[in-house]
């Protein structure tokens, strides 16, 4: 077994360490965020002082947006397979802009694709547009989370239009945001994947080459060359989610015209007042409101309701208007019991909504 080295989670440090593990000259590593909370999570999940499992090049820590962070073991072959399949889907290798942290899989894989393509990645500093102008490759790519796309559509539209493709992942892309990007002439490609799949492995509902998708009672199953090797020092958890080569995700999906559509998480259906409520459906309805900029709908334990449905809304509508809006197209029993108005949703460094923080503040 190898030993695991911890390195700073900066673009230069991660790019150097990644280059070494891909060419076989360096030991496996785990990138450490700059903030104390992120660093503590890496130490907890990556356990650097313990012997390292075989078939591992990088240990990435999941964001912990909805639970305990885990150390995900990614092999050299999985990282390279993901990069090659991405370039094949996009039309060939290119130069990548890095607007994401490289200690999360989306940012790490931008660096991997750059190394595989033999191009120099360009990190985004204070200005997305200025960084985009530094790209010199014939084909120009980047990847980001939906929140970043929404912000750049407001501030850096011309720069977004200059890319051959922009991969959108890390969270579900709301339909209104997809329409905004399309109408603005931006080539934004929604991707589905996670740390365990070596970043996005399904682009616009179609699996990348080498990836297979299946459904088991609505639960999404993934098989292919980009899958992780297991969870760090968690053999029981690994055995639970990796079965016969298939990764059992926590997401629900369906096939529409041959394409995968992700409809939510397995735990997104809650029982509130004896009624099954699909939280993602309520959330999608709220995002259609003309004065709602962003929204998340969560369930919280409640003595009266069993689970209380709470809408966290960035925008003007108050409780009664939110409930009426939901009830226009969905059952009245699905309308949120509580509505919390916010100036912005709290985000993790990964670009995902900090659900734990929302629920803690709602108590």
UniProtKB/TrEMBL annotation:
Coiled coil ranges (UniProt) are none
Arranged from A to Z, the UniProt key words for this protein are:
Ligase
Q: Where is the signal peptide?
A: none
Q: EC number(s) for this protein?
A: 6.2.1.26
Q: Name one GO molecular function term.
A: o-succinylbenzoate-CoA ligase activity
Q: Which residues form the AMP-binding enzyme C-terminal domain?
A: 283-352
Keyword ATP-binding present in the record's keywords: the answer is: no
Where is each AMP-dependent synthetase/ligase domain found?
33-205
Residues passing through the membrane, by range: none
Q: Which PANTHER family match?
A: LONG-CHAIN-FATTY-ACID--COA LIGASE (PTHR43767), NONRIBOSOMAL PEPTIDE SYNTHASE PES1 (EUROFUNG)-RELATED (PTHR43767:SF1)
Under which name does UniProt file this protein? O-succinylbenzoic acid--CoA ligase
What species is given as this protein's source? Kribbella aluminosa
């Amino acid at each position: 077994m190898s030993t695991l080295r911890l390195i700073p989670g900066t673009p230069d440090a991660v790019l150097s360490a990644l280059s070494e593990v891909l060419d076989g000259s360096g030991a496996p590593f785990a990138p450490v965020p700059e903030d104390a909370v992120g660093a503590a999570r890496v130490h907890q999940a990556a356990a650097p002082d313990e012997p390292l499992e075989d078939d591992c090049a990088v240990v990435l820590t999941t964001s912990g947006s909805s639970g305990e962070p885990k150390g995900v073991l990614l092999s050299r072959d999985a990282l390279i397979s993901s990069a090659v399949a991405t370039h094949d889907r996009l039309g060939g290798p290119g130069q990548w802009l890095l607007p994401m942290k490289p200690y999360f899989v989306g940012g790490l894989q931008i660096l991997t694709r750059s190394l595989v393509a033999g191009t120099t990645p360009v990190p985004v500093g204070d200005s997305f547009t200025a960084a985009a102008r530094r790209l010199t490759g014939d084909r120009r790519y980047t990847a980001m989370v939906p929140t970043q796309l929404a912000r750049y559509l407001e501030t850096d539209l011309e720069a977004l239009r200059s890319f051959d493709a922009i991969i959108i992942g890390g969270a579900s892309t709301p339909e209104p945001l997809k329409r905004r990007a399309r109408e603005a002439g931006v080539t934004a490609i929604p991707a589905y994947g996670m740390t365990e799949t070596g970043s996005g492995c399904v682009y616009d509902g179609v699996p990348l080459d080498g990836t297979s998708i299946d459904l088991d009672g609505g639960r999404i199953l993934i098989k292919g060359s980009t899958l992780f090797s297991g969870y760090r020092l968690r053999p029981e958890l690994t055995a639970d989610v990796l079965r016969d080569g298939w990764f059992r995700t926590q997401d629900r999906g369906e096939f529409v015209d041959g394409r995968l559509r992700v409809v939510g998480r397995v735990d997104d259906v809650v029982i509130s007042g004896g009624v099954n409520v699909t939280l993602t459906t309520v959330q999608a309805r709220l995002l259609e409101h003309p004065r709602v900029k962003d929204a998340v709908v969560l369930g919280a334990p409640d003595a009266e309701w069993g689970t209380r449905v709470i809408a966290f809304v960035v925008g003007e509508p108050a409780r009664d208007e939110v409930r009426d809006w939901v009830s226009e197209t969905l059952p009245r029993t699905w309308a949120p019991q509580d509505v919390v108005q916010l100036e912005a949703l709290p985000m993790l460094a990964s670009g995902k909504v900090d659900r734990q923080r929302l629920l803690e503040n709602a108590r």
